[in-house]
Amino acid sequence: MKLDDPNLKRLEPPKLTLFEKTYLPQILGGLVVTGRHILGAAVGGKAITVQYPEEQHVPSANYRGVHRLNKDEQGRVKCVACMLCATACPAHCIDIVGATAPPEWEDREKYPESFVIDELRCIYCGMCEEACPVDAIELTGLYDLTGLSREEMIYDKTKLLSVFDMTKDAEPMQSGNPPATLALPTSPLEPEGPGPRPSSSAGIPPRS
Question: What is the spatial distance between Cα 181 and Cα 178, in angstroms, rounded to a whole number?
């Protein structure tokens, strides 16, 4: 668009009155909001903090936390290595190495031999979840993401699958969970380093 385009609409900053130029209305407005929160917590019992970690915070339904890789009805990773999530990711934090699927996997041609997400580089925009055609990758309500090094915050396929085992009951897949009789992963699928582990799944509160 050119500067002399007739459709170009120029906005002028609002003119402040002499009283508004003192910024007292804005300051008083902020104090009113602060006072409302103080009275709500002190009198109305509307506490906005919790005794973490004894009391777990329940994020909102649209919160986007740690990623997970979903499994299908046979316990296999649902990802078909189409690379759409890695392509859509604006932060370039997803790295996938695809491989030819085993002959007994007749429903797909490829699977992710390696699937890595850099949780520190991710901006949790949810574009990967939107791009996935088979609902293989989803963002969960897990928010207590910790690690002692950058390497610990890089989640490989094993860790991402373990997040699914942790969260599948509290946060069912959008396309429906696999059967409840699905066996938990054996040793090859256990996390290889610090991070979410299946044993702590009981502590995950359901999302409202």
Answer: 8
- Please say if the pLDDT value at position 35 is more than 60: yes
Distance CA 80, CA 133 (A): 9
Ramachandran quadrant class, 28 (left: phi over 0; alpha: psi -120 to 50; beta: rest)? alpha
CA–CA separation, 65 and 124 (whole Å): 7
Could you give the CA distance from residue 135 to residue 176 in angstroms, rounded to a whole number? 10
The residue type found at 71 is K
Separation CA 84–CA 55 (nearest Å): 38
Choose among 36, 94, 43, 106: nearest CA to 69.
94
Positive/negative CA dihedral, 46, 52, 55, 60: positive
Give the pLDDT score at 41: 85
Structure tokens at 155: 């989640």
Q: Which residues contact 179 (CB under 8 A, 6 or more apart)?
A: 73
Cα angle at 162 between 158 and 167, to 5 degrees?
A: 150
Predicted pLDDT of residue 43: 86
Would you state the pLDDT for residue 188?
34
Concatenate the DSSP letters of all residues of 43-57 into one string: TS-------TTTS--
